[in-house]
Design goal:
The chain is an all-alpha fold. The protein is built from 3 helices and no strands.
């Protein structure tokens, strides 16, 4: 995985936010580190053991639509 990035490593008095964002992104996992959306987070055996009902499979379109709705709602609350 990526390196751990600590907030205290940054100079907060600097007004150059572009550099801070790109350095922050270095600490994020890569696409290859992430679990695919098609893979369940809870294995079937564990879900059965704890009576966890499987959620319906979501497509990329469903995820994108939900993300757009969330962003839209966040923008409304900021304004």
């Amino acid at each position: 995985m990526g390196e751990e990035v600590r907030i205290t490593d940054y100079d907060v008095s600097n007004d150059d936010d572009d550099d801070r964002v790109s350095e922050w992104e270095l600490g994020l996992p890569t696409v290859h580190d992430l679990m695919p959306l098609s893979q369940s987070l809870v294995p079937a055996e564990l879900a059965t053991a704890f009576s966890i009902s499987p959620v319906p499979h979501r497509t990329m379109i469903d995820v994108n639509r939900a993300s757009q709705n969330t962003l839209s709602n966040l923008k409304k609350t900021v304004q």
